[in-house]
Amino acid sequence: METKKLIDQAIKKSYDYLGKDKFLHARIISSQIIKIDSNCHDAHMVLGLCCLKDQNVEKAKEFFLKCLECEALKESAYNNLSICYSKIKKHHDSINCIWNCLSLNSTKDYYWSHLAMQYKELNYFSKADECFVKALDLNPSAINLSNYAAFLGDTGDYKKATFYFEKSLKKDPSFFGPYIDLFHVHALNNRYSHKLWEYYEKRFDVYSQLKWVKEKNLKSPKNILECKNKKCVIYCEQGIGDGLMFMRYLKLMPSYVKYVISCEPEMKSIFEKLNVKVITSLKSKKFDFYISLLSLPFLLKKPSIPKPFFPITSKIKKFNNKIGICWSGSPAHAFDKHRSIYFKKFYEIFKNKNNLEIFSLVKNYSCRKYVESNEVIDLSSGALEEDGLINIGNHMKDVESTAKIILEKKISLVITVDTMMAHLALSMGIETWLLLSKKSDWRWGLKNKSKWYENNLKIFRQTKLDEWDDVLNKVEECLSKHSSTKKLKIRT
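The chain above was modelled as a monomer; its predicted structure follows.
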């Protein structure tokens, strides 16, 4: 009896630690409990949750399955198992687990919402819609309204998505996610306003990669006038592509704002060419304001999009058969699986076109491994050995050297997937053909034109997620016309 009492106290303590995100403490206590009672379902549950937190999904599954063997906590175990299967993209297994949850408790809206998410991943859109509606019937909460709106946006019903995002905000104005989603919906439709840029500022409360801004307690201005006679640093918040895309706003900065730039090392020399002082760290507290480069449209109150701005530009206006290609981006990118293409498939469109000079603009040839597969994937297999491909990656040390080698080789057309290379080529004034996933970034809009790059961009967009054949066939067809005429008439 005394042992059971001690175990119960220890279990309570381990759950308390879980609630405080002290996973190591929770793990140590639960591991000790299992040494005493190997069938303690709560201890297995805690250890499973700790493994899930550490992204050790397979080990987490073992602990949750053990809970089921112990004939206790079945509902929670099935729910957590469904999360595990979802993380490794085994959506059918996840669905089976959720139905087991619903057989035990059909009134929990979370189960219906999670079930809808799994059906959506399998493109079972009518079933997903039914489950989202069921979750809303049980609980019309802000998060359920937002989840349904996001689903509607993913399926292309932006008008209805907007309605539900706005309804979510009315339900709970402090729920920041829908602000970002509303910005995305309008940006996809090439609609920008000061109010929408203000919505985009909520990303500091939503994006996990921006938590450091609040953790460091960095002070940001509410408008650009506050920066007068203050020491300011403008930092590049996200990737190099965003830096290239938003640097156009620097030329709109009032002369009374004195600032330095904090950026990635690859961007340092470019900002220095603009006579801007560059710092390498934000550790110093000597600045009055810390400003994200992506916040400038809001602070400057410039809802309309200014023209691209880059200190190195190309003078080539006619197609000269010199093409730069980029078939993959960084393996670390969260969306890499959907934006990058196998080199062999990509390069096929240039075969039997002996009059072309093809330059590789891929710097990172690293293999990649995605969450749902243990297979190591080499997207660039054969790239260096392929006949006719000229590799200039060794000259691409940073943004400036990449721009200069593109100019030196007189490249007149860049064909690329959605990486910083697209932003660089477009900013340099080079004709750029962009190959986009069906589920693409808000920066490119929904049509074949973008307000960010109106003069030299043509978009080739998937009609079905992860299927590139139609896209590549259209690129090859356009390429055949242009390589024979030596003209770049890309307007549609």
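The two ends are 79 Å apart (CA to CA).
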